[in-house]
Amino acid sequence: MAKFINKKSEEAQNRDGRVIFFSKTPPDPGETEGGKTDTQQEITEFSKLVKNQEEKIFEGKKKDRIATVTDLIEEEKKAIANIQVLIKKQSQSLERARKLFREKQSMLDAELNRKSSMFTNDKFSIMGHLSSKMAHDIRNPLNVIKVQVDLLKLRYSKQEDTMMLDSLNRMEKAVYGITNQLNDVLNFLRESPIQCESVSFLKILEESLSYIQKPDNVRIDMPSDDVMLFCDANKMQRVFVNMIQNSIQAMENGGTITFSIIDGQNETKIEISDTGKGINEELLPKIFEPLFTTKNDGTGLGLPICKKIIEDHGGSISVRDGPTTFTITLPKSEPS
């Protein structure tokens, strides 16, 4: 029970006569030294307990969500792996189908080529026989014309009729040109086995020059050293005649044709170069193709014939420009 003290001191008494009472209430038994009651402490501890419990529940839900997401990711990975396996199988099937298609296409192309080749060979065979017959039929009267031109030149040379001699010379050149074209056709169509033997290179070259009308402003430099070639002399002579004629035609204002030899252990290289106007770089890969020519009166068969003859010997022929140089390579043994 509160006790009231009536202090009637002068200091406590108010001026108007009022009296001030002091209450000395004892402290509450439940109050602690810190100023908090037991009830407040219990509430605080309960709040902490509830908060900890909520945190545990939230943490558990969080782990459950992570586990759920992880399971979903694993399922997606498995689904992707299955799709990849399926794609791989489909790709393998597609590759097998492509391979089978390529094989069938190759077989079809081979069959078409065989049929086409048979037809083409028959066609070329007929054309070859016809061309050969026509060439022979034309060459015979040309030989008659050439003989008559020679007789007329002999007759008018005594009379010193320069006008007639000039006309006869032009006729002779025309007959010579047509004859060469016919010879190119016949040589291209004619297939005969080569007869190889050991023969002097310089001998073949000198015999080749006897078939050529060399202008006075053209010089031919021959190698000083001779070598023995294992070849068909007649066919190689045809090659050299053609090569020299091409060089002469390329040098309109004259020049020099140079032969050189590189004699190796297993093969012999013959280089033929001239001081003509040269060959355009883009035309070099085409000059050995049949019927390709840059001449107005050419047949386009000269160089293909040379190439075929050399390859029949087991050799090769190539060309480079600056200056124009043909390189013929012949083996020293009989081709297999």
Strand-helix topology:
Elements: E1 3-6, E2 21-24, H1 38-159, H2 162-189, E3 197-200, H3 201-209, E4 218-221, E5 228-231, H4 233-250, E6 255-263, E7 267-274, H5 302-312, E8 316-320, E9 325-331
Parallel strand pairs: 4-6
Antiparallel strand pairs: 1-2, 3-5, 6-7, 7-9, 8-9
Helix pairs in contact: 1-2, 3-4, 4-5
Explain this structure.
Helices cover 56% and strands 15% of the residues. The chain is of the alpha+beta class. The protein has a domain at 197-331: Histidine kinase-like ATPase, C-terminal domain (Heat Shock Protein 90), CATH 3.30.565.10. The strands form three sheets. It has a five-stranded mixed beta sheet, covered by helices on one side. A two-stranded antiparallel ribbon has the order 1-2. Strands 3-5 form a two-stranded antiparallel ribbon. A hairpin with a 3-residue loop joins strand 6 (255-263) and strand 7 (267-274). It is rod-shaped and about 160 Å long.
Defining key terms:
single chain, 336 residues, alpha+beta, Heat Shock Protein 90, five-stranded mixed sheet, 5 helices, 9 strands
